[in-house]
C-alpha cells in the first residue's frame, strides 16, 4: 500500500481481517460522501517519510476539512491554499526559535523529506465536519505506527502538541527517544505554552547530540 519499508513494518495490520473490514468502511465513505484528503493522499505521510528515515514525528489530530486543503500531512496544506491559523502559529514559533522567516505557503512536504513524519492520528475526515472520522478505526493503525517507531534503534523525537497528540505518549516508552510536549498551536491555546516552547531547536540539539543530522526546518527550496 505504501511502497516502501512501512509495508513490511505494518504488514501485520494491513493483512489483518480487522483492517480490511475497516478499510471497506473507509472506501464506502469515499463513495457516498466528500472525504478529505483525496484518496491517493491518505498515506502520504508514510509514503514521503520511510520508516528508516524517520527522525522526528509531529502528531496531528485529523485532516483539514475544507476544500483542497488536506494532502495527508499533519498541519500541512497544499500550495495555493491559505495558511491555516495553527500553521501560522507554528511558523511564528519557528521564527522566534530559529529565526526562520514564515514561508509563503503551507506545504510541509520538504519537512517530510527531511525525516519529519507528519502523522495525523486520524487519516480521513468528512467535508466541513471536523473529527467526523474519529473513532472510525484509524487510531488502531496510528497507535501501532507509534509503537513500531518506539522500537526503533535510532533515537527519534516525538513532538506532541495538545491533548489529542499527548494521548500517544503512553506508547513511547523507549528511553532512547525524546518527547517534546506543549499546548496545541491553535489560536485558542497557543499562548498557554506553545509559544516559547522552542520545539525546533530542542529537536535539533537532541539529534546532534546523538550524531544524527539535524532537520533543515527552512521550507525554501
Q: Largest sheet at a glance?
A: 4 strands, parallel
Structural class: alpha/beta
- Bin the strand percentage: 5-15%
Radius of gyration: 17 Å
Helix content: 25-40%
Count of strand segments:
6
Outline the low-pLDDT stretches. none
Distance between the termini: 29 Å
Sheet with the most strands: spatial strand order: 3-2-5-6
Shape: globular
Report the mean per-residue pLDDT as an integer.
96
Give, in order, the helices and strands.
Answer: HHHEHEHHEEHEHEH
User: How many distinct helices?
Assistant: 9
Give the topology.
Layout: H1 6-9, H2 11-14, H3 17-32, E1 35-36, H4 44-48, E2 56-60, H5 85-98, H6 109-114, E3 116-120, E4 125-126, H7 138-150, E5 157-161, H8 162-166, E6 178-182, H9 199-209
Amino acid at each position: 500500500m505504501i511502497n516502501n519499508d512501512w509495508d513490511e513494518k505494518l504488514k501485520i495490520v494491513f493483512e489483518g481481517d480487522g483492517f480490511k473490514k475497516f478499510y471497506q468502511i473507509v472506501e464506502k465513505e469515499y463513495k457516498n460522501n466528500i472525504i478529505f484528503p483525496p484518496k491517493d493522499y491518505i498515506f502520504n505521510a508514510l509514503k514521503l517519510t520511510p520508516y528508516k528515515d524517520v527522525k522526528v514525528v509531529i502528531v496531528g489530530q485529523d485532516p483539514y476539512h475544507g476544500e483542497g486543503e488536506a494532502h495527508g500531512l499533519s498541519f500541512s496544506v497544499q500550495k495555493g491554499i491559505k495558511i491555516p491559523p495553527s500553521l501560522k502559529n507554528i511558523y511564528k514559533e519557528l521564527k522566534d526559535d530559529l529565526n526562520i522567516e514564515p514561508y509563503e505557503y503551507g506545504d510541509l512536504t520538504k519537512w517530510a523529506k527531511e525525516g519529519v513524519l507528519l502523522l495525523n492520528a486520524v487519516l480521513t475526515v468528512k467535508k466541513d465536519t471536523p473529527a467526523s472520522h474519529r473513532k472510525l478505526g484509524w487510531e488502531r493503525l496510528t497507535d501501532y505506527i507509534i509503537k513500531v517507531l518506539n522500537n526503533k534503534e535510532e533515537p527519534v523525537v516525538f513532538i506532541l502538541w495538545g491533548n489529542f497528540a499527548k494521548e500517544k505518549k503512553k506508547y513511547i516508552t523507549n528511553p532512547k527517544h525524546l518527547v517534546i510536549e506543549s499546548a496545541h498551536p491553535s489560536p485558542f491555546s497557543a499562548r498557554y505554552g506553545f509559544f516559547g516552547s522552542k520545539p525546533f531547536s530542542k529537536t535539533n540539539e537532541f539529534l546532534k547530540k546523538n550524531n544524527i543530522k539535524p532537520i533543515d526546518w527552512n521550507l525554501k527550496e
